Amino acid sequence: MTNATRTGMTTTMKRFFLTGTDTDAGKTLISAALLKRATMDNLSAFGLKPIASGSEQTSEGLRNRDALLHQQYSSPRCEYQIHNPITLEPAIAPHIAAQQAGVNLTVQSLTQACASGLQQPHERQLIEGAGGWLVPLNDDQTLADFAVAQGAGVILVVGLRLGCINHACLTVQAIEQAGLAVAGWVANGIDPDMDAQEENLRYLHQWFTRKGIQHCGTVPHIPGIQAEDDQQLAKVAALLRWPE
Known about the structure:
The chain is an alpha/beta fold. Helix content is 37%, strand content 19%. The protein has a six-stranded parallel sheet with strand order 2-7-1-8-9-10, sandwiched between helices. A two-stranded parallel ribbon has the order 3-6.
């Protein structure tokens, strides 16, 4: 967690980097719901998607659905480019999409691109990663290095499916080895047909509790949920809480 005074602001805010156990763990749904939860709790909140691939051309330029959700549920909202400074069109790994677009991705360049977002004086600041914890920026650096540079506490979204225990344990180990604390975790039901889901959840609960990591909520599988629908998302937000 970061004190806002580090960047010259006068208000105190809590900054979190949200990552998942893998691609499609449900990071964006949980990010949007946490931003909505902050609003429900009368807190200002800002969502930052530093780099987003898989975007579409619009009359206003490239736009990414995940980043638009960050903008929609931030309170107060900012211009799109502040929520998502690097927007790439191909729906492929960000470092490959950046190479194809001639964009030089490094921790330094990404931090500079995110400067306006990182300076937003909201009470809660949520930075959503891409894919899992070790998604590359280039041949030598990853998004994990960017998270370390921001000194953020990490929220881990565990996508509930076969293999989630191993993925969760390995991700926590990698986060801690990088020198960051896992501030909280969310269980997200992405596979409606997962066998022994309750048994897996029971193990995850006791494992995270033993490590002193807060449980920030469990979201069941919700078929056809439209995160853009404020009422639908509010139901997800009600199941969550921010780390203390």
